[in-house]
Amino acid sequence: MKKLLAFGAVLASLWSGTTFAETLRFSSFEPPQAYVTSNILTPWAEKVAAASKGTLEIQMFAGGTLGRNPAQQLKLVEDGVADIAWVIPGYTPGRFDEGTVAELPFMVTESHKGSLAMWKMVADGHFKGDYEKFKLLCVCVSIPAFIGATKEIKEPKDMSGLKMRAPGPTQLAVLEALGAVPIGGITAATLAESISRGLISGSLIEWVASETFSADQVLTHYNTAALGATPMLVLMNKARYEALPAEAREAIDQYSGEAFSDYFGQEFDRYAASTRERIVEKHKPQVIDPDEAAVESWKAALVPATEKWIAARENGQAIYDAFGNALQAVSGAE
């Protein structure tokens, strides 16, 4: 009798048009209170759920609760452990390779324009391969990375012989061109410890990452020459997306793509500026903002890094030129 009543309740719900929300698992390797997770990713998830007409819930799994290693995030989505994840492609070299063009020095000047240009590269068909295997929700970049170190860095020659960390091959090549000893394999989560133990003298970094991962507590000197941005992705398992009800897919689409890249970039730029102020006030590091003449010396030293990136790819020059044009296009649209 109880089984019949339960079956009747299910039929009644179906006949009444009641829908049951699908739950998506959104993985972030950041602590839940970190800015990107708490002020960009989580509000995005809430907006999508609210627009889904009751068909969708998005549950945030921050702090590595589905997988602690930042390099693990992509595999979580591929294996279906997470439905959505915030991914740093530099931790999985060889994947999303075209997007590493944003890591080249003196291309990206800010997160907003850089992120819009990255999405334009997707929309115009320049980014293929792994980009086509997922439902892309956001393709974006940080503000340009610069030098954070435990000693003063005024000009390129000051980098000679220093053990310096970067998150991926392209920025490691930037360090190599400057005469530093490039060190890979150190994730943001272990950066501060590596510096405090003297394993490295610093890293290519930007303000938000420095504070989020406590590197600001051990870095004493910064030189803000724009040495290449960090590409970032918010992506979704494509099969999971395609299996969702139409209302859920429409809600995701409404807040994804160019809209998400635009939102991410504006928020990141705003927060990076306030983070710089906070770090300077709290820790009082030396900060060198190179003048025009100094910038030209950094650019000259880094020509080999750009040439190496272009030469290593069959379509390297085409991607490089297209990204430069995309940056000009989004700048002209403002």
UniProtKB/TrEMBL annotation:
InterPro entries: DctP_fam (IPR018389), TRAP_DctP_sf (IPR038404)
Pfam family of the protein (one): DctP
UniProt KW keywords: Signal
GO biological process, one term: transmembrane transport
Domain of life: Bacteria
Signal peptide limits: 1-21
PANTHER family, per database record: BLL6794 PROTEIN, PTHR33376
UniProt protein name: C4-dicarboxylate ABC transporter
